[in-house]
Amino acid sequence: MRKFDYIIVGSGLAGLYAAYKASAKGSVAVITKSFLRESNSFNAQGGIAAVTSHDDNPEIHKSDTLIAGRGLCENRAVEILVNEGPDRIAEIIADGMEFDTVNGALALGLEGGHHKRRILHAGGDATGRWITEFAIKKVLERDNIEIFENTLLLDLLVSEGECYGVRCWSENEELQQAGEKGSEVLLYANHVFLTSGGASAVYARTTNPQTTIGDGLAIAYKSGCRILDMEFIQFHPSGLYLKDSQRAFLISEAVRGERAHLLDKNGKRFMVPIHELAELAPRDIVARSIYKQMQKDQTPYVTLSLKHLDKEMILQRFPGIYAQCKEFGYDLTQEIPVAPAAHYSVGGVMSNNEGRTDVKRLYVCGEVAATGIMGANRLASNSLIECLVFASRAVEDSVKVGAVGECPHFEHEYTKDEANAELYASLKEQVSEIMNSHAGIIRSAEGLKEGLEKIEALSQSIKQRQAERNVAGREYYLEASRRLLCVARLIMSPALLREESRGGHYREDFPCADEAYALHSVQRKGEAITTAPVNSNFFNF
Predict the structure, then answer these.
(1) Which residues of the chain have pLDDT under 70?
(2) Does 3.30.70.260 match the CATH number of domain 2-146+360-401?
(3) Which residues lie closer than 8 Å to 49 by C-beta, 6 or more apart?
(4) Top-level CATH class of 236-341?
(5) Rounded to an integer, what distance in angstroms lies between the CA atom of residue 121 and that of residue 46?
(6) Which residues are catalytic?
């Protein structure tokens, strides 16, 4: 039996920063399903939002966040973010993190929905990579942190509402002493931090790594956690369009922040009459406007034009994006084709302001968490600062909770049958197409009902497969299939019930916002979907 003070599931910024902070309190294990550097955090281009200049203040940052959140933000959580964010930035700078500067001062960018330049960046357009590498360096310096790559979370070890560790499948040789390589391994801890990221790779066209399919969401749901606001999926307006490919290389919001223009097929700016901020309107508005323009023009993309901007500025500010576009045959200093792609899961596992969930000793941080900060639509670059602020708060809270008592016995449950691998791969592709077609940028009751029916049919096929192969217990690929189908339901079910349009949820049959739906959607295993009022005591638990 291997036991740690902390187990961190995931290696994005929330997980790495939590591990670094937790290492000052005790022993830490970090498990990640692929490699340490494969995460949304690592791939983030835009930057990290925090008030660091004299002409900005937390109240303006709060206002921008609330406006983007479309009436579903939790005020207290937003206040914590904007007031503690600058302290976390100062802290990591003191620890050696280097952000880009101009004449000795922090270089601050502007992104959609922000009324002040407050976006810190590093390496031009490589902020996610730089800040994640900084966190990785800090983690690797600590002798009491062990990292287990190629280790997939299967389940949480939960008994009577309390979490005692994790059940995982590991290909990691270092865990062979706990179990044979390529087998189920049980790891125990006083505290488990779920920082497994979002679920946008359940869509066919996405900016996320293909591993970002919401495993953590489904597992937390199964364990008894409440899941909030999963109907709100943020589609990034500008994923590079590649003919005959669903791949969507991200073109950062910061490119439009430097005054790039969106053009229709006739070369005309179409965002100017739609919103006062034009190309810098909140993401849901820009993404939906692009989608409608594509339908109007009968084209699979719109044009992002930078040819009116200074070429040297583009090369200096966006070296990574420029190089990647060049690899695909496009010149970023001129014009490139872009189209929206699934990017960020706004909802997630419900947590309070200390990162606690409904399961004792289980914390959530980062994109997998629903703190109430994002509301119905995430303000650009708030995600990385949320990782720092709430990972820090969660670690401090865990000290108050203290060590676990006597641990109950858990049996091994999983087997792996490679004959089911092809079934899972096929199902994953089918689910991604269903999500694109029936729960995309623009939705309807008819489309959502049809999508849910297709998901149910796939669920029945999994049951049939288990019966045909006489599978006893839990089989790796069949359970992975069930988790994927669970995530699809968690998104589509509240989307069907929310008969309005708000933020990252747009219904063509209910195109206007309805104040009767200014509520959080709440899903819990074994219970009907319910709602909860905004800015009540709902998050105080």
Answers:
(1) 40, 43-45, 176-181
(2) no
(3) 61, 85, 111, 114, 118, 119, 120, 379, 380, 381, 382, 384, 385
(4) alpha beta
(5) 7
(6) 283
